Amino acid sequence: MKYLFTFALLAICPLWAQQQTPAMNMPGHGSDMQGMPGMDNDDGAAHAMHSMEGHHMDMGPHMKMTPMRALQPGDQEKADKVVQAARRAAEKYSDYKVALADGFKIFMPDRPQKQYHFTNYQYAFEAAFSFNPDRPTSLLYEKNGDGYKLIGVMYTARKTATPEDLDARIPLSIAQWHAHVNLCLPPPDKKQQAWGPNSQFGLHGSITTEAECEDAGGRFMPQIFGWMVHVYPFEQKPENIWSVERQAHEHMD
Q1: How many domains does the chain have?
Q2: How confident is the model at residue 58 (pLDDT cuts 50, 70, 90)?
Q3: pLDDT > 70: percent of the chain
Q4: Which ranges of the chain does DSSP label H, i.e. alpha helix?
Q5: pTM of the full predicted structure?
Q6: CA 23, CA 248: separation in Å to the nearest integer?
Q7: Full residue range of the structural domain in which residue 91 is found
Q8: In this structure, what are the phi and psi dihedrals at residue 178, rounded to the nearest 5 degrees?
Q9: Is 111 exposed, middle or buried (0-12, 13-18, 19+ CB in 10 A)?
């Protein structure tokens, strides 16, 4: 029943479940690895979060993107309101210590990353059911000396969200949402193979199908976490605010 409950959380809320179950200790990871999403497949979940910024239509077999739609009347105005809300939320947390005091938690602070996610799990849970652009699931920071520099926010939706659901939140003519798919979780004796440039498992792994995963003794997940989209509200040009390329560059090593 515990695992069924965790799976349900992963289905409706991609990030709230991160700290609900114990994670396996991974070399190079600090204590914040404790509480990665889900059951006994926490290695794969951690790998997913670490590589979650790939955001291009041609990002390979582990990334699924929403296709761009034709611009409809009112789309731009709707998207602009989201950007305004994202900017308000971001400005409040320009000092990362304020974010921490307000309940945001740093994901894997001890692992070097191009972009750090400070996640509010209450907001993540709410985002599974409704969209409030004033309450982003995560704040995005770059490391800046001993502190962090705020660069953007992330919104989420449940993994069962339809294109129409996502379009209702942020028009698909403006932004592309992404999801992480075709994940093969390693068996206990091959946990290390979920990391690194030549990994067999995980979201950079060479395994991309359920049959391959079963042959390797792994566990296949068609999709891990829900839908995600990043917004860089301090940028001036629309292509930079919703930049697919920047997200890909920021998240992939």
Answers
A1: 1
A2: low
A3: 74
A4: 2-12, 42-50, 75-92, 96-101, 121-127, 163-169, 210-215, 238-241, 244-251
A5: 0.76
A6: 26
A7: 2-251
A8: -130, 155
A9: middle
